[in-house]
Amino acid sequence: MKKIYFIFSLLIIFLLTLSFSQTNLSYARLEGNIYHKEDGKPIEGAIIKILGTDCVGFSDEDGKYVIKNIPIVGDQETYTIEIYEPNFNTVTLRKMETIKSGINQMDFNISLSQFFKKYYKTIDIAHPFSIKLTNDSCYIISGIITPKNTSKNDLYLLKIDKYGRKVWGRTYSIGQNIINAYVDVNNNNEFIVTATIAFQDQGYNIYLLKLDSNGKIIWEKNTGRSDWDEVAHDFIITNEGDYVVVGYVNLRNDKDVKKDNYIVRFNKNGEKIWDKVYGGKDNDYFKRVTQAVNGDYIVVGWTTPDDKPSYSTYYRIDKNGNIIWNKKITTDAPNFARGIISAPQGYVIVGIVYRNTSEYKNTIGTYWVNIDDKGDVLSKKEFFTKGRDNVVESITRNSKSYILTGFVNFHDKRIPNSYILKVDLKGDFVGEIIENKDYPNFIPYVINEKDIYFIFLGYTEQDNDKDIFVYKLSL
After folding, report:
1. Class level of CATH domain 116-473
2. Would you tell me which CATH number, out of the four given (3.10.290.30, 3.30.360.10, 3.30.470.20, 2.60.40.1120), belongs to the domain 25-110?
3. Least C-beta-crowded within 10 Å: which of 148, 179, 299, 470?
4. Which among 238, 292, 246 has a CA at the least distance from the CA of 267?
5. Considering Cα of 355, then 374, then 315, then 293, what sign does the dihedral take?
6. pLDDT tens string 362-392
7. pTM for the full predicted model
8. Per-residue pLDDT tens for 51-67?
């Protein structure tokens, strides 16, 4: 009998305790700001979690966050708070805090990894073409932007810091339609932009723009001839501070239009020093340019004959525009040079090559060719995969490997996906990364920084929209 009374007493105590606890249950609100520990700037996209609850908050573009309905028993409760950085959602801060019933104000300072994956959405359609490292450890991106419900492209520049945070974005309307835009940075941290503009009569000219580090226009030049179509595909700021642009040219309104290789050199004020046209009876295109140690220009592209497959070409041109040598890469099927970079032994050229065999039916692969300073081929590698096209657009390297980027097109899906190919210094396959998303995405440009980081510039296409993304990784 005593045992029954004892159990009954415990039950009464439990119910009274539960009733007392419920009557003392209240809720708290936690709000504040998330700042960067090193520079004090607000951090957008940080995740704040109250462990032991379902309460989560996110910092906005001003670094502000709000978390509501945090349960409090009594006057206050001690919780562990975790803050995740936005770049890779990794925990960057974990600490115990006492939260009181009602409104609580808490600010946090966190560190950020320099590795990041960031998407930069605009209300308009944005298409990037190039990215470069600035002298203040940021990145400048060039592209075109098309306001929705219009068909006219404007120049677009986006500056981000080393953590992927947007510094500024600028749109420049020059009265004509821009079809591409490439950017580089001079020693004064000024931005030089080379673009191709299209006129209403379908003619094309090369357009130059110089801006200060804040994106303010210093000068602009429309350099084209009235009887020529001139299209830029790439440019560099030379060791002398001049600008060398490569692409193609043809006579406007010519009944038998033929495109020829085109290279033009401008001084640092955007005034033309010389231009040269190279080509024969076929269509010729320059695609990429780099500068040799002695100041010559190494240029790659391709030629498209009427009666046989296209083939890659590469030229060495002196500072006065004279050809030192020009050579070609031929295969049984069409191939096109897409990029070039200096190498421990000369230069490495990369491109795409077609193959149509019993093993690889109507397949596009990637080639890697190492040439010496005289243009002779030292080694050559090809990369084919059954059931998909490997399309390379850009190349960079560090002291250990080459990184090639572009997109993969699976034959059964026909949805292009971002592609990163890593090969060693001999050109042998190391590994690859494929995004494998259900919407088109591409990586047209890659650069290397400090022999550590690879910075990938890409874009996605969804719902008739294009958005820019940047990945900063170590591979």
Report:
1. mainly beta
2. 2.60.40.1120
3. 148
4. 238
5. positive
6. 999 999 999 999 999 999 999 999 999 999 9
7. 0.89
8. 999 999 999 989 999 99
